Every structure is written in structure tokens, then in C-alpha cells.
Description:
By secondary structure, the chain is an all-beta fold. The protein has a single domain, classed as Rieske Iron-sulfur Protein (3-layer Sandwich). It contains no helices and nine strands. A hairpin with a 6-residue loop joins strand 8 and strand 9 (103-105). The radius of gyration is 13 Å and the shape is globular.
Amino acid sequence: MDAAHPYPDDGVVVAVSLDGKDVLITKLQNQFWAYDAKCPHEGAPLHKVIPDADLCVTCPFHRYCFQLQDGKEKSGRKGKLVTYPVEIRNEGLFIGLETKTGWSLW
């Protein structure tokens, strides 16, 4: 990773735009996570939300708690947060997106 795109520190959420998608990236429990920047329930912005120790992102509007592992809402309510696979390669941190290329370098 170059100086323009340093890896985020543990517990820090970084907002990026990749192929027209607003994506949040964080590092927790020695792993990188990437997920959509808006709550799937009503579109609340999640960029100021720090995932908790259980790897859940809690929406600030209605308290929906989405698990980073699979995007599912923890209590079983409808809605699923879009999550993206992350790979560390020699060139840097890659986020898997549903695009023609499939992966984007962050």
C-alpha cells in the first residue's frame, strides 16, 4: 500500500468510492472488512459508526445491527448489509465488487 492509501488502523473506518460505489473499510481482529456505506433499512450513513467487538455495525437511526461476516441483521430483522471480500496482494488492498473487473484496488 502506498502513502496515498495507507491501511486503516484497528477500529478506524475509512470511506472510499470504488467504481461508483461508496464503500467503508476497517480493520478489526487482525482482518480487513469492507461494506456498503449506507444502511440497507432506510439508507442511513454508516461512515461514523465504529463496528463493535462482535463485528457488528449498528445503524445510528433505528439501531439495526449488521454482522460484518455475512451482512445479516443480528436479531433476524429483514435487511442485509452488502459486504465485500477483501484480499491483501503485493499491489495493496483489493476489494471484491460486483463489476466487470470483479476487484478494485483501494
